[in-house]
From TrEMBL:
Pfam families, per the entry: Ras (PF00071)
InterPro entries attached to this UniProt entry: Rab_GTPases_membrane_traffic, Small_GTP-bd, Small_GTPase
The family this protein is said to belong to: Belongs to the small GTPase superfamily. Rab family.
Recorded GO MF terms: GTP binding; GTPase activity
Protein name: Uncharacterized protein
Recorded superkingdom: Eukaryota
Residues annotated as transmembrane: none
Amino acid sequence: MDMPEEIKQFKITLVGNTQVGKTNLFSRFVQGKLPKVIYPTIGVEYALKQYQLSHNQQINLQLWDTAGQERYRQIILQHLKKAKGVYLVYDITKKATFDQLEEWLDNIRQLTDPDVAIMIVGNKLDKVVDNYELREVQLEQAKNFADLHNLTFMEISVYSDEDVEKCLTKMVEEICNTSQICQK
């Protein structure tokens, strides 16, 4: 009798400044919808999501939503350890959140393994569709930052659900490619 194959599991952490949309992104990943009421995350929140790879392998994603407030920074940084993937989220309508990416990236690289998959995610694309003046971080500026640091980059809208599933799929593919933990 064949034994069932062990389900692979890996940790993905969401980090970034406060109010960039990490909790909404977390909710879209886990529940497929936005939360009815949004409260600032205190410390961290955790959920497990089953994910089916294209070759029918089942994996479990441990998703960790972290607070963005400075007072929780040390707690947040501890949750980077053993992460196979990190979403570094900023708000495209608030340049200050983009300006903090370098500091976040330094922390991530100090506390994670060298093969961790890091994705820069510009959120709130929906806000600039009809009012481009609200955009404070230009697409080229973000692409250049990602290229400079050899990172994957996407812009999404958690509110309208634009490219959220693609964002998750891209992260899983990158983790599978870099860590060799997924079968092909």
